[in-house]
Amino acid sequence: MSSSSNLKAVPAAAETAPPRRERRKEARPGELLDAALDLFVEKGFAATRSEEVAARAGVSKGTLFLYFPSKEELFKAVVRENISGRFAEWNEEFEAFEGSTPDMVRYCMRVWWERLGATRASGITKLMISEARNFPDLAAFYQQEVIQPAHELMRRILQRGVARGEFRPLDIDYAVFSISAPMIFLIMMKHSLGACVPRDYAVDPERYIASQVEILLNGMCK
Hints:
Layout: H1 4-16, H2 18-23, H3 29-43, H4 50-57, H5 61-67, H6 71-82, H7 87-96, H8 101-117, H9 123-131, H10 136-163, H11 172-191, H12 193-196, H13 205-220
Helix pairs in contact: 1-4, 3-4, 3-6, 3-9, 4-5, 6-10, 7-10, 8-10, 8-13, 10-11, 11-13
């Protein structure tokens, strides 16, 4: 999102302009989380420095550490703010949904893209795939905060379909991967080959999701 020249210029301005830092000393945590999300997605976890996040938000590093005592805690807060904190809302939608389960699957995959996949926060998935092995504590956190709740919600959807006679009997523990895998592929395309050579790896998300969900439902529906 930002060029390397911007990353050099902003910290210099933040470190040499005390009046600006004074004005920004009461920066809200949300502003710091926005800056952190941008940098984590742009550079990855290992390459992002706390002082860069502070500079991007226009505050001192000391101000950042008042809210988030370490880069690890900052990353966890970014994940909770942008992804895991939304599962309560998504589960409420599941409870209130009155349509058929095939329609629920269509709705969930489409809305997942609109609310997460198409946003900056989708880059966190690529980051975790790329760096989880080097940061096992963060991998365990992501597993608990994101992957497990996501799979539990998908299980509830599939179990609903089976219980209502809309889906054939399924190995639900593994059927959840049939829903999540196409979405992970779409994110990886967006943040890897699709970002580097978009004309050669052009994927229309809406068409892709519509195609994947119908293939999936053709395999599950009675």
